[in-house]
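Each letter names a residue; C-alpha cells follow underneath. Both lines appear below:
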Amino acid sequence: MKKAGEYDESMLVFEEIPPAVHLDDLEPQPIFRGNPEKPMVSLLINVAWGNEFIPPILKILDEHEVKATFFFDGSWTKANPDLAIMI
C-alpha cells in the first residue's frame, strides 16, 4: 500500500489471539507502582466501582485537602449528572 500510495483494506492481515487471562478471571484490586526515591502519590479513582462510595471519598479527600483524578465515561456521566457535578 505504501508503494502504491493507496489504502487497500483487502491487504490488511491480522490474527486475533485471545488472552490467556481475562479480566473476569481477576479480582478487582488497586495497582501499586512508584519510585521509592520520590515521596509522592497520585490517586486515580474510577467512578464505575460504585456510586455509594463517591460521597464518603469526596468528604475524606476534602477533609485532608487531597487532590485526586476521577475517571468517568459518557454513559456514567449521563446516568449520574449530580455525582459528576459533585466531583
